[in-house]
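Students often ask why inverse folding is considered easier than folding. One informal answer: many sequences map to the same fold, so there is more than one right answer. In these notes we will look at a single instance of the problem. The structure comes first.
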């Protein structure tokens, strides 16, 4: 073992530039590999927490309650069941019952006693909107002093020991309850008793919640603010009454037994959102199910009450989140697998190029008696000295850059990258030098035939790619539990295309070699000959380029499709760049003022009767009236059912021509039929045009007619469809007035990105595509740098034979052009093919619109090819390859020929 270290140190000192390049490559790759799973965890956890936080605490809190203690118990036992000390001890045990990862937020969780029903109180000074008395609920919840500040008066206290016979108690109310119900400090409310005189409740204080949006106050919203309840009466109108809550001290809870409110005990566990993680979703569902109707509930019944019940909507919220994640995750996996494949190819190519550069050295060691194990062991040690610290450095950088997320997956990814970087050079050397070689023949791409082993490997990949494409087309990425083969489908398509193109690449070179030989100049023929003598090691760079280009095309098409879907859905929701709508007709001055606003191009007034009834029946169909010329321009500009304006022109003494949706046209045909409008007037229409979409009305049912053919009242516009650039929402709302609803297309589009799961997935996708493109460029640079010494020596020798600098530049550019063209054309072609093959199985609705899947445009969520994503990466590769070749020729020309012609210049 002693000779290894000096040999390793000597080799590292002999090529410091190569050593530094390997360190940078391994560190960067390890950092990206380690950061990816933590970044995914971060946006998935943020999406889960946002989903739980945006849902009301009434849905997310796990609520356990027990009914009023039974009448079979003694009065003291019933009162003791409502004692605050008893409830506190039970609450502590309930908290322990919750299984991890379900963790209760102890600050917002609560327990107490409340009346099951709000009781009508007779006090006449309480508000009665329609004559019905105000109803009051009593609640004795723990921790009022910790969750509220006293605004006036003081907190209530219990005088002595409260029992079912207690006649008077104290209570507090929130500021909102006091304002709405006209309650003041000192007010007395009489709650009806059960077979006894009313319970007098004296309000001693008005409080303000410290955290009104917290679960303590929002799990039971009535504690914080009163509610106006509507009940139907004998007529067609609705009666209303107010319902509020009085906050009693916990020690006064037994007094509720003397009322008709049937007090129930409750224990409320608010989830701690900070501890929720997406990877624990299945365990979290199990913990909720256990507490809601499983072993956890049975344990809670053992130390509370046998009749305890539990309920929560948290499991439904988690299910909705899981559905959203299952639709987004596979798309991210596709981008990640593509980038990972390119990174692996680059690492293998770096090791292969290093082995090729040192082929003579390793062959000499083997010829002088060096064992295969000894040589590969030294190469492994030499690489590990650089790769292991670089991998650790990359892992540390990833952990600092993404501080949250699971560390296990990050470490595993960095270790995998480091191991691959360490093994690439020794394995390549072991395969190439397993037998002692004194001399190897030419390995030109146009001469050497592929081996049987390579043919078998290519056929195996072809079968895998076909299976993956078939699976993705039939199951789609929205299927939950999609496997890795489906995620690798675009990558495998690119890999197969690369292998096929490498096999076909020699054919045009052979065809072009003979015609270029007849040309007068030597540059064309020599460049074709040089391109044909390229080593077979160029398979790896081409594989990296095609895989990266395919992934970039696929990823760019996904991102473009997501943006297009959102734009289309937002346009369907508004009908224009902005939509101003009111329940009543808009003044004529409103349209004029908006038309003169900044950025406004055109304003199209539309009268919409949503309750129009064709043939005077019960079925309603929205009917829109608009000026045919202006409305046709709007439909054509937005692409929502363009039609000729002349088709809706109002004829004299004839039914109004109408544009209808396919469903309406199928029901009513092309014969004239009457339509009763909301104001009671009638109009006769005849369907002459059928369109799937229209700007004024969204949905599958609509009619559009000439507004001039409607009555004076029905023709008054209720909506304004505004087109323009950079519209000012504030100015539009000011011009529209308080009674109008103003919706901007840009705001509607932004509303579709309502989850960190969406935005995080898009960022990860874009980063993965960018990283794949960077690795492709790196692969190209590695290949060109490896060939740089040979090309420099060639130019030096040719210049001694009379080759000019301009001819040298053309020679290197033409030599690099065939492979660059092959990569560019092949990448664009395979990217297009991958999108076309896999588009039936890709549904962008989930990642584009999240929960608003009902707004998905018809046929607008399927993946389509994006021209820019296809052509821009391919052209970049072409420009980069030729630019590097030209730059190398220019630099070689400046340095002169002495250094390149020295003996022993190649290692």
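Output (designed amino acids):
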């Amino acid at each position: 073992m002693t000779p290894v270290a000096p040999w390793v140190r000597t080799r590292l000192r002999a090529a410091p530039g190569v050593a530094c390049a390997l360190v940078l490559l391994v560190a960067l790759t390890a950092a990206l590999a380690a950061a990816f799973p933590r970044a995914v965890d971060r946006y998935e956890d943020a999406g889960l927490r946002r989903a739980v936080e945006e849902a009301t605490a009434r849905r997310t809190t796990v609520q356990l309650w027990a009914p009023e203690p039974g009448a079979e118990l003694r009065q003291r036992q019933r009162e003791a069941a409502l004692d605050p000390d008893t409830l506190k001890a039970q609450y502590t045990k309930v908290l322990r019952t919750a299984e991890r990862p379900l963790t209760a937020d102890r600050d917002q969780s609560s327990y107490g006693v409340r009346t099951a029903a709000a009781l009508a109180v007779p006090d006449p000074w309480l508000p009665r909107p329609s004559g019905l008395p105000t109803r009051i609920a009593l609640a004795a919840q723990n921790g009022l002093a910790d969750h509220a500040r006293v605004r006036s008066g003081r907190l209530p206290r219990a005088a002595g020991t409260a029992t079912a016979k207690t006649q008077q108690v104290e209570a507090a109310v929130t500021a909102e309850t006091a304002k709405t119900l006209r309650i003041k400090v000192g007010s007395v409310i009489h709650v009806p008793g059960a077979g006894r005189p009313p319970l007098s409740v004296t309000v001693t204080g008005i409080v303000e919640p410290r955290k009104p949006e917290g679960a303590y106050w929002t799990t039971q919203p009535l504690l914080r603010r009163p509610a106006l309840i509507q009940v139907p009466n004998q007529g067609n109108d609705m009666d209303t009454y107010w319902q509020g809550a009085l906050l009693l001290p916990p020690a006064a809870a037994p007094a509720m037994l003397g009322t008709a409110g049937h007090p129930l005990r409750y224990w409320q566990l608010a989830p701690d959102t900070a501890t929720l993680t997406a990877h624990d979703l299945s365990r979290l569902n199990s913990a909720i199910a256990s507490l809601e109707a499983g072993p956890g509930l049975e344990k809670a019944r053992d130390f509370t009450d046998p009749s305890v019940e539990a309920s929560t909507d948290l499991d439904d919220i988690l299910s909705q989140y899981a559905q959203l994640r299952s639709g987004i995750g596979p798309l991210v996996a596709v981008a990640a697998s593509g980038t990972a494949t390119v990174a692996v190819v680059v690492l293998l190519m770096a090791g292969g190029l290093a082995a090729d550069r040192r082929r003579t050295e390793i062959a000499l060691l083997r010829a002088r008696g060096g064992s295969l194990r000894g040589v590969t062991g030294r190469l492994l040690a030499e690489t590990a000295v650089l790769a292991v610290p670089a991998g650790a450095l990359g892992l540390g950088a990833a952990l600092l850059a993404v501080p949250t997320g699971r560390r296990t997956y990050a470490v595993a990814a960095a270790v995998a990258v480091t191991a691959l970087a360490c093994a690439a050079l020794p394995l390549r050397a072991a395969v190439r030098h397993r037998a002692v070689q004194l001399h190897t023949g030419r390995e030109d791409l146009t001469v050497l035939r592929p081996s049987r082993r390579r043919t078998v490997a290519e056929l195996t990949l072809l079968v895998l790619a076909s299976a993956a494409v078939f699976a993705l087309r039939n199951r789609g990425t929205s299927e939950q539990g999609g496997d890795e083969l489906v995620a690798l489908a675009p990558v495998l398509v690119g890999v197969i295309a690369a292998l096929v193109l490498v096999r076909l690449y020699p054919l045009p070179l052979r065809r072009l070699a003979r015609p270029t030989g007849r040309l007068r100049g030597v540059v064309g023929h020599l460049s074709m000959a040089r391109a044909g003598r390229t080593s077979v090691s160029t398979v790896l760079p081409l594989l990296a380029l095609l895989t990266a280009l395919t992934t970039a095309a696929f990823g760019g098409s996904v991102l473009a499709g997501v943006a297009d879907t959102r734009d289309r859905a937002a346009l369907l929701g508004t009908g224009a760049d902005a939509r101003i709508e009111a329940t009543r007709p808009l003044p004529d001055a409103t349209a004029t003022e908006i038309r003169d606003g900044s950025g406004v191009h055109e304003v199209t007034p539309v009268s919409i009767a949503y309750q129009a009834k064709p043939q005077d029946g019960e079925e309603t169909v929205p009917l829109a009236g608009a000026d045919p010329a202006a409305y046709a321009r709007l439909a054509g500009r937005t692409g929502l059912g363009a039609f000729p304006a002349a088709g809706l022109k109002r004829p004299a003494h004839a039914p109004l021509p109408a544009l209808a949706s396919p469903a309406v046209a199928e029901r009513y045909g092309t014969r004239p039929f009457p339509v009763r409008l909301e104001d009671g007037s009638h109009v006769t229409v005849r369907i002459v045009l059928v369109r799937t979409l229209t700007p004024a009305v969204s949905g599958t049912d609509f009619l559009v007619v000439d507004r001039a053919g409607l009555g004076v009242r029905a023709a008054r516009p209720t909506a304004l469809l505004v087109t323009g650039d950079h519209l000012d929402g504030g100015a539009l709302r000011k011009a529209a007035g308080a009674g109008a609803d103003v919706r901007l297309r840009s705001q509607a589009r932004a509303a579709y990105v309502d989850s960190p799961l969406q935005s995080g997935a898009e960022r990860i996708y874009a980063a993965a595509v960018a990283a794949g493109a960077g690795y492709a460029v790196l692969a190209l640079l590695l290949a060109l740098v490896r060939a740089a010494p040979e090309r420099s020596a060639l130019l030096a020798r040719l210049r001694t034979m009379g080759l000019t600098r301009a001819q040298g530049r053309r020679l290197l550019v033409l030599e690099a052009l065939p492979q660059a063209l092959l990569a560019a054309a092949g990448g664009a072609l395979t990217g297009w093919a991958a999108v076309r093959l896999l588009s039936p199985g890709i549904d962008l609705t989930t990642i584009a619109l999240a929960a608003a899947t009902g707004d998905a445009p018809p046929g607008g969520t399927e993946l389509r090819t994006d021209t820019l994503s296809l052509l821009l990466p391919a052209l970049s590769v072409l420009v980069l390859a030729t630019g590097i070749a030209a730059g190398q020729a220019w630099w070689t020309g400046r340095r002169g020929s002495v250094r390149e012609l020295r003996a022993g210049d190649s290692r």
